[in-house]
Amino acid sequence: MAHIDEVNSNGYNLQGDVIEFTREKYPLLYQHNDQDVGSMIGWVIPFFNEKDGTYEADFGFYESAGSIPQGVSDGVFKEVSVSYYVDEGEFTDDFVLNISKATFAELSIVSVGADTATSIVKNGLSAELNEEREALKENARKLKELKDKYEFS
After folding, report:
1. Which contacts qualify for 53-56: CB closer than 8 Å, 24 or more apart?
2. Is residue 68, in this structure, part of any structural domain at all?
3. In a domain, 131, yes or no
4. Keywords for this entry (predicted)?
5. What are 104-152's pLDDT values in tens digits?
């Protein structure tokens, strides 16, 4: 599901076993659609595999999942995506968010994951962390402009 101490394509880095599980079972969704009860296609029991440094999950499908389980069996769906809420984290100078605390939300079967290395797609940033990230990017852009403007060849 997800690896620790690796920056994913979303620019997030789980710094160790930092995702908290507040209950045993969570929803298994199709394409992160949490707005339609019909998109809840099963259940998931996530856990941290300390030996491999990965978050993994056992899961099962409900009858209402339709053809999705067959699609998984046939290899049509090869990726999952984890959704968690970032509770604590800091941005690096390279705009990587080092996450030190998060809360698990759900797991989704997805047709195309945003992160091919870890199959992590949706990571919920709070509005405050998102604003901080954008401010850091803007400051870096302004600094580069100033350096370019006053740099002599």
Report:
1. 53/3, 53/4, 53/5, 54/1, 54/2, 54/3, 54/4, 55/1, 55/2, 55/3, 55/4, 55/14, 55/19, 55/82, 56/1
2. yes
3. no
4. Coiled coil
5. 999 999 887 655 543 333 344 556 666 777 788 788 888 888 888 887 5
